[in-house]
Specification:
The protein is an alpha+beta fold. The protein has 2 domains: 82 residues, no CATH class; 246 residues, PPM-type phosphatase domain (Phosphatase 2c, domain 1). The chain contains 9 helices and 11 strands. The strands form 2 sheets. It has a 6-stranded antiparallel sheet with strand order 1-2-11-10-7-8, covered by helices on one side. The longest helix has 31 residues.
Length: 358
């Protein structure tokens, strides 16, 4: 009777997992709309639930093929739930063609410490590419906090520096909340301060304006590459602005944050943004991954006209180079200026509230 009861409880938990996954997705989307301070509370829920499922599967009776199938189904729904955080990019946005991809160093994880997003706003198309220190659940919570803040600030802030300052405040708020949860009030204040000082994020913010001007703010992140197609020059790293600012969270932002006029994206030109997981990747012999060379091959093959092809080629080359063993997360975002062929969609109009005296 005891074994039968335990088996029934375990089976009930497994069969309930798919419903729990879907509930997590729905609640995540609802809470995300309330503000970025609520997002980290739910960011780790899909991963934790998956861990519970795996732990339950470890103690299953032999021959539980049906239960294994249910666990596989729960894993598929976990992927859907995690995509609610790092949402797939639209194929086209405001006359730009987009594609993004991510490879996680954590086994079985869809995303880790890397983040990216693109928003069409009244101020232009705004892009974030970032890399949170480390990976796993702590990094996932920080990713959620920053993405939630960016998706609001990109529309609310008229100037790019305002977006970066909102990201800084969101990061500090998230770290304070996490420190309170992880360290009891009686814990040593110096230890809490040390943990906070070790948390930082590299961030690249871009704003693409109507005529293709690309404005940038860079906090310790790799500069993007520009592709000009099969007949153009080799891919160029756009680092004309000199040294970037320190990573976000390491030091306070300076009082003045003038955006850098990075380049002008002509029709047909493409930009490739990435995290340092590609530059730091090595093969079995210790050789670094030749990212610029792979992009040059893609451009010569005409792949600059297809951002999705660029992402696919770079990811495939990286996995072959490392033998599928990544030491760090890797995110890649490619975009092409198609405004001469695809008319830009009307941009959102800022909400204006008027107060009329009766």
């Amino acid at each position: 009777m005891i074994r039968t009861g335990a088996l029934r409880c375990w089976r009930g938990a497994v069969f309930a997992l798919p419903g729990l996954w879907m509930l997590t997705v729905v609640v995540f989307e609802l809470v995300s709309s309330l503000g970025p301070q609520f997002v980290p509370l739910l960011a780790a829920a899909p991963v934790l639930a998956c861990a519970v499922a795996v732990a339950a599967g470890a103690g299953r009776p032999r021959g539980g093929h049906r239960l294994v199938a249910e666990l596989e189904r729960a894993k598929e729904i976990a992927v859907t739930a995690q995509r609610a955080l790092l949402r797939p990019l639209p194929p086209r946005l405001d006359g730009l063609t987009l594609a993004g991809g991510h490879l996680s160093a954590s086994e079985g994880a869809l995303i880790g410490g890397d983040l990216y997003d693109v928003q069409a706003t009244p101020h232009g198309v705004r892009i974030i590419m970032g890399d949170v220190r480390g990976h796993g659940l702590p990094a996932l919570g920080t990713v959620a906090a920053l993405l939630g803040s960016f998706r609001e600030a990109a529309h609310d802030e008229g100037e790019l520096p305002g977006v970066l300052r909102r990201l800084e405040r969101a990061l500090h708020r998230h770290l304070r909340d996490r420190a309170r949860a992880e360290h009891p009030p009686a814990a040593d204040a110096a230890e809490r301060a040390r943990c906070d000082a070790e948390e930082f994020v590299t961030v690249l913010l871009l704003e693409i304006r109507d005529q293709g001007e690309v404005m940038a703010l860079n906090c310790g992140h790799p500069w993007p590459h520009r592709l000009t197609g099969a007949d153009g020059p080799a891919p160029a790293v756009l680092a004309t602005g000199g040294e970037p600012l320190p990573p976000l969270g390491m030091f306070p932002l300076p009082a003045e944050l003038p955006p850098l006029a990075l380049t002008r994206l002509l029709p047909g030109d493409a930009l490739v943004l990435h995290t340092d997981g590609a530059e730091d990747a090595r093969d079995a012999g210790g050789a670094f991954f030749p990212l610029t060379g792979v992009l040059a091959e893609a451009a010569r093959a005409g792949a600059a006209a297809a951002p999705a092809t660029v992402v696919e080629r770079v990811q495939g080359a990286l996995l072959r180079h490392t033998g599928g063993l990544l030491s760090d997360d890797f995110a890649l975002l490619a975009l092409r200026n198609d405004r001469d062929r695809v008319p830009a969609q009307p941009r959102p109009v800022p909400l204006v509230r008027s107060c009329l005296r009766s």
